[in-house]
Amino acid sequence: MASLLVRHATHLVAMDDGDARWTDAGLYIEDNVIRQLGPTAELPQRADAIIDARGLIVLPGLVNTHHHFSQTLTRNLPAAQNADLFTWLRVLYPIWANLTPEAIVVSTKTAIAELILSGCTTSSDHTYLWPHGARLDDQIEAAHAMRFRFHAARGSMSVGASRGGLPPDSVVEDEAAILRDCQRVIERYHDAARYSMLRIVLAPCSPFSVSPELMRQSIALARAYGVHAHTHLAETREEAAYCAATFGRTPVELAEDLGWVGEDVWHAHMVHPSPAEVARLGSSHTGVAHCPTSNMRLASGIAPIRALRQAGARLGLGVDGSASNDSAHLLAEARQALLLQRVGGDPAALTAHETLWLATRGGAAVLGRDDIGALAPGMAADVVGYRLDTLGLAGGAVHDPLAALVFCQPQQVDLSIINGRVRVRNGQLLDIDLPALITRHNALARALARGEEP
After folding, report:
1. pLDDT of 239-288, one tens digit each?
2. What superfamily does domain 3-61+373-429 belong to in CATH?
3. CA 257 to chain centre
4. Count of CB atoms situated within 10 Å of the CB of 378
5. Is residue 407 within 8 Å of 352, Cβ to Cβ?
6. For labelling alongside 50, which of 234, 383, 392, 453 has CA 20 to 30 A away?
7. Does residue 50 sit in helix, strand or coil?
8. For the whole model, what pTM was predicted?
9. Cα separations (Å) of 325 from 161, 363, 439?
């Protein structure tokens, strides 16, 4: 049984129910599980490997609840820089139609590297185009190579423009084929065990790109296998107008009609629910991935996250697709969440501690996990540490080191442990040739935008 001791952390924040915090503290890990934490003097003094965490604030790994890894290839495209969601999608659909299996693998590794270095140790991804033989298997292979905890969402689109949908017909799939592949990946890959590194999610894309029947059959299939379900919902007013014209329902009403509410469902965005819908989403404990940067970038609006939390909805943070955020820094997303909620006029609408709760415990709850998001005996050994003596935290960390992570310049991690394995040490991502990965990623990005072979 391999053991790892992290000791002498300047601050350790457990993010547990009791808000436990220590100075000169650490953790003792065996294999992939935390066995003990607290003051350094009370921990075992020997282990197979020892990390001195002086100068670090240590906390649970952050949890990302919504992303589109492949969009790292198309971020910051000039034609989509000043567009609302529907215009943005119409620009990008034809470009994404040229994705290849290699592009999926390389973009997945790139997105995960960026997430890990921001402090994220678990993420879901929602890829919904699978052209040229690309499969969810490609992402799973890449996440495994990165040794990253992954909730792989098998996304899909089935209603093209000829049937009243938004995407072009060239990028949609046959619904029977979608469901067959969903069943295949669940049966082959889903691991429901505690400390699982890989879980499968079923994720039809949105009300304007899939049929109600596919939504019904997807949620039925997910519940038959005990996996979670995910989609975009209530993101923009244009989506609401589409749902009213096409279905005679609001987006939330449509989801309710189709059975897409409950503790095994989470929706990305939820910017425009009515107060009554907020109450119903809360009473059903439906999950929400809050993506503030994307919502600002596309001028979608401000999600009512305080009302959703107070109503009982499960709420976490998501960086969303890198082409509608142009970044995948989860700590930066936490900062944006805090600031955006205050725009309405309440300077205490969201506190730094509440924001980090969303980024840890909240994200774990959204993904249906009770083994990540906090530091405690028996929890997964997903641990991150940020240096407190950096330029960006100078003058801030000395007053309130935890809040400084949110209020001050977003930092990169100095230490990241995922499933008991050190992935970042002294700020360096281990076992990954980042320059080579970035070079290949950029070549693929250029070729994709030009419609050329890389």
Report:
1. 999 999 999 999 999 999 999 999 999 999 999 999 999 999 999 999 99
2. Urease, subunit C, domain 1 (2.30.40.10)
3. 26
4. 11
5. yes
6. 392
7. strand
8. 0.98
9. 26, 19, 21
